[in-house]
Amino acid sequence: MLTLAGALNHPQRLALAGEIHARPFMVIEAPASISHLALHCPDDPTAHERLLEALCARFAVAAPAPGAQHFVHDFGHFRVKWERHSEFSTWTFIEPGADGGDFTRTAIRHVPADWLELLRGSVIVAAHILAEQGRPLSIAGARLKSLFPVPPLVGSQVLGDGEIWTDFQVGPDGFSKFLVRDVGLRESQMGRLLQRICEIENYLMMALLALPLARDGAQLLDTVEEELTELGSRMSRLDVDGDAEGLLHAISGLDGRLRAMSFRTGYRFSAAQAYYRIVGARIGELRERRIEGVPTVGEFMERRLAPAMETCTSVAARQEALAALLNRSNDMLRTRVNLAQERQTQSVLDSLNRSTNRQLRLQQAVEGLSVVAISYYGVGLAGYMP
Predict the structure, then answer these.
(1) Full-prediction pTM beyond 0.90?
(2) What pLDDT is attached to residue 195?
(3) What's 44's DSSP letter?
(4) So what's the pLDDT on residue 100?
């Protein structure tokens, strides 16, 4: 059989092919208890791998090689799936066969408490998920009221034969809660469904990281707009030529502040839009069907997440518009300064021209007098000749 030697392959071929299978779905059958964490450590990219190494060390398990992007292992009482993303890492703890009926017996209870302390300040998502089998639930039933006592309740039928119930609220324990019911899902659908739910939660929160920046940026843009309006009023005055240097300095200061804001928010705003699109794609993959009386996950996101993303988009658009306006104001002011300098230069040239003309006339007068004087002395000298 013909085989390709390693030297024939592109240097990146095997690595790129491995990316296709880098994050496989876990096979999860109901009943099961799942705890999911997403950690965001922007100031220390190596923290994710150190946390994985620390967890493996607690259970005397070999950690993956440095640079690994995913890790799956059965620790006995629970399984762990770890994934490294560009800005965050995710941890999914699964306890198969756990059918506690509520969220008191969670999969993460098997994790050492001292390891959880290492996560301080980095948890951006924390969720408990109950996966169970059974018939469809009624929104008026006691089970849903006991699991999600505080409205709003969100629910839908998904993938044809599954149900999702949640309230998207962070409880007193710091976790949000999801109930996923298998009403007739086919093989491996539960694992894909649970991953989609985790991804929606992850990308939702990562997208919302841009919202505080947008709110702070809106206040800064209001200030810049007010100051730019005042500068425009000063530019319209007749004595702008005399204050051109001060105006240029003020516009440069505004431009510097706006550029600093752009450096802080540009990547975050573009990343938020990318995460928002992923959230929409993952919701679409659920193939939701409405359960009368409660909003679907897609409807909930449309009401809550979409306005936040519109705020980020509008702030980014205002930022670009103000930057363009500052550039135009700077160009207009420099044009006026250049015109004023040209007028001054023309005035100096006219003055030099007049001075030159006066000097020329004076020189001509001196030359005329010199001719008369020389002639006078010449005639006088001629009279003394015999």
Answers:
(1) no
(2) 92
(3) -
(4) 60
Q: Are residues 148 and 250 in the same domain?
A: no
The token pair at 1 is 């059989």
- For 177-190, give the DSSP string: EEEEEESS--TTHH
Residue 40 shares a structural domain with residue 136: yes
Number of domains comprising the chain: 2
Q: How far apart are CA 324 and CA 328, in angstroms?
A: 6
12 lies in some domain: no
- 323-334 pLDDT per residue, tens: 888 787 777 677
| Residue 318, SS3 per DSSP | helix
Residue 325 belongs to domain spanning: 210-344
CA distance linking residue 182 with residue 27, whole number of Å: 14
- In whole angstroms, give the CA distance from residue 110 to residue 128: 14
- Is 302 contained in some domain? yes
* pLDDT score for 205: 95
Does residue 178 share a domain with residue 33?
A: yes
**Both tokens of residue 176?**
């949000």
Rounded Cα–Cα distance for residues 315 and 174 (Å): 31
Report how far residue 128's alpha carbon sits from residue 7's, in angstroms, rounded to the nearest whole number.
48
CA distance 166 to 128: 10
My answer on whether 216 and 311 are in the same domain is yes
Q: Could you list the mean pLDDT of each consecutive 10-residue stretch along the chain, which spans 386 residues? A: 67 72 75 94 85 92 87 90 92 84 87 91 93 88 87 90 92 92 86 93 94 90 82 66 69 81 87 94 94 92 90 90 80 68 73 79 74 70 66
Q: Where are the alpha helices (DSSP H) in the chain?
A: 13-20, 47-58, 113-117, 142-147, 189-208, 210-235, 244-286, 297-383
Please tell me the distance from the alpha carbon of residue 299 to that of residue 306, in angstroms, as a whole number: 10
Identify the pLDDT of residue 372: 66
Give the contacts of 138 (CB within 8 A, at least 6 positions apart): 144
Q: Is residue 191 part of a domain?
A: no
Structure confidence at residue 237 (pLDDT): 66
Give dist(CA 23, CA 117) in Å, integer: 27
- Both 61 and 178 in one domain: the answer is yes
CB atoms < 10 A from the CB of 285, how many? 15
